[in-house]
Amino acid sequence: MKRHVFNKTIPVEPRSSGSPFSKVSTMEYKQLIQSYFPSLPPCIIGQGRFALRVLFRVNNRKSHAHPKTDLDNLIKPILDAGKHYFWHDDSQVDEISAKIRRHCNRSSITIAILQLENKEATLDQVESLKKEKKEQAAD
User: Can you give the pTM of this predicted structure?
Assistant: First the structure.
């Protein structure tokens, strides 16, 4: 089971990590993305595992994103921007889905962050069910 934590289209131009084509530093770019993140209650930040879905829309005529920009280089700044907003470390992101749509009228980034079901709790539930079945079989 997945629960949406964040889902928004941000009207910013996609930039890759450390792009020489960008006039904005990587730190400024991450801060720009973070400015669209909501203030979350402390009980959500850093709790559990996450899935990240990203759609990069690029207007190649006006973009600083090079036409041969690698998708993985576009994702890294998004992961880094989510640090301390959604997760403590991007190693908590277990699923990533990303797409680039080129030649769009407007550049933007759609970001969806989902909190994944706590797998440890699920394993505990499985163990509990196994124990119950053994007890029922013994009766």
Answer: 0.75
